[in-house]
Amino acid sequence: MASKIFSALADDDVSVVRAPEGAAKQPTRKSESPIKVYCLPEEKAVIEDNARRAGLSVARYLREVGQGYQIKGVMDYQHVRELVRVNGDLGRLGGLLKLWLTDDARTARFGESTILALLGRIEATQDEMSRLMKSVVQPRAEP
């Protein structure tokens, strides 16, 4: 079976790209010498915590900081999921309001108090979404 597959591949115009003969291999970081940094346990804990909050390994964090890159942390995925849920709620509430504004027969029983309550829920949901966005954008604690 395998020979059929390989013979079928050989029949097609498939070319394999290979490195030229005698070309030097690209160096990897693991094949190079490491930089040792002496620090106090408290400093090490701060570095490890900063790397964890940025979603990076300690080595990558130190390498990027050492080369002058600005570290951009990852967003808290729990807050992002909450934002998605709130956005869905806003979409459903907006759909109900749109249905009422089109004088659909299904919304004939909706009174003014129902619509005002719906608008209140939309406003509360927008406030919740604004609060969540601020918590995602603003850092939780300043070092």
Using DSSP, what is the number of strands?
A: 0
Oligomeric description of these chains: single chain
Shape: elongated
* Low-pLDDT windows of residues: 1-14
How many helical elements?
5
What profile does the largest beta sheet have?
A: none
The pLDDT mean sits at 75
Radius of gyration (CA) equals 29 Å
Structural class comes to mainly alpha
Order of SSEs? HHHHH
Helix fraction, binned, reads 55-70%
Ends apart, CA distance between termini: 62 Å
Please report which band the strand proportion falls in: under 5%, 5-15%, 15-25%, 25-35%, 35-45% or over 45%: under 5%
Describe this structure in words.
By secondary structure, this protein is mainly alpha-helical. Among the domains are: 37-74, no CATH class; 77-137. 59% of the residues lie in helices and 0% in strands. The protein is built from 5 helices and no strands. The protein has helices at 2-11, 41-54, 58-66, 77-101, 112-137. Helix 2 (41-54) crosses helix 3 (58-66) and helix 4 runs antiparallel to helix 5 (112-137). The longest helix has 26 residues, at 112-137. The protein is elongated and about 80 Å long. The chain starts with a helix and ends in a 6-residue tail after the last helix.
Features of the shown structure:
143 residues; 0% strand; mainly alpha; 59% helix; single chain
List the helices and strands and how they pair.
Blueprint (H helix, E strand, L loop, with lengths): L1 H10 L29 H14 L3 H9 L10 H25 L10 H26 L6
Helix pairs in contact: 2-3, 4-5
